[in-house]
């Protein structure tokens, strides 16, 4: 029994030291942990009763979408595969889907999915909706650094339409103060509205 108690105490001590080490790395001269390292340590899927894991966009041209989300914004591809299934439009044959997942910070939280359908023949193309901040539309929001510089690259991508060029905005903070943000918005090649921001003050 004493050995078990000693082992349990030792595990608690090690856990405590590890937690203190994380804090010390952030406040001492030791190399600070990256945001991704901290997130991977502190946020595990099993710790939460509900996780918003992924948002998937159905796109017309996946390679064009990747020029935005991978090349310009800097997301990392963590999954890229083609899936086959029977067609669901009443016609014979198979339908091929290409599905790509991209991560910004974590491979489980906040992942963006891009899904493109291949029918093997031309299909009627739906009109692209660009309706701004109105009901039944979504807004993807990214926080990043060097927004002004990256925005110039974003504008050059085919199909991008600028909604708001980068500008300074202040929002009410959680504690009653102000949050200063450099805000930009644009439509992606499929008409999804993207807000691409840079935090100027810590929240």
Count every beta strand, where a strand is a DSSP E run of 2 or more residues: 8
Q: Identify the strand order in the major beta sheet.
A: 1-4-3-2
Compute the CA-based radius of gyration.
22 Å
Report the CATH C-level class of the largest domain: Alpha Beta
The helicity comes to: 25-40%
Q: What's the architecture of the largest domain, going by CATH?
A: Roll
Relevant CATH superfamily of the largest domain? 2,3-Dihydroxybiphenyl 1,2-Dioxygenase, domain 1
Q: What fold name goes in the CATH topology slot of the largest domain?
A: 2,3-Dihydroxybiphenyl 1,2-Dioxygenase, domain 1
Strand content: 25-35%
What order do the SSEs take from the amino end to the carboxyl end, as H and E?
HHEHEEEEHEEE
């Amino acid at each position: 029994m004493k050995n078990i108690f000693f082992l349990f105490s030792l595990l608690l001590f090690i856990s405590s030291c590890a937690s203190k080490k994380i804090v010390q790395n952030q406040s001492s001269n030791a190399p600070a942990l990256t945001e991704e390292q901290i997130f991977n340590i502190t946020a595990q899927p099993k710790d939460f009763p509900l996780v918003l894991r992924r948002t998937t966009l159905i796109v017309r041209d996946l390679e064009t979408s990747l020029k935005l989300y991978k090349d310009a914004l800097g997301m990392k591809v963590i999954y890229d595969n083609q899936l086959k299934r029977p067609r669901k439009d009443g016609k014979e044959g198979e339908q091929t889907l290409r599905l790509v997942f991209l991560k910004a910070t974590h491979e489980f939280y906040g992942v963006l999915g891009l899904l493109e359908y291949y029918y093997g023949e031309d299909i009627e193309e739906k009109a692209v909706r660009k309706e701004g901040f109105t009901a039944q539309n979504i807004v993807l929001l990214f926080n990043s650094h060097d927004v002004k510089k990256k925005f110039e690259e974003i504008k050059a991508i085919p199909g991008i339409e600028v909604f708001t060029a980068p500008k300074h905005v202040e929002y009410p903070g959680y504690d009653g103060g102000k949050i200063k943000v450099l805000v930009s918005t644009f439509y992606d090649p499929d008409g999804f509205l993207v807000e691409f921001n840079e935090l100027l003050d810590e929240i």
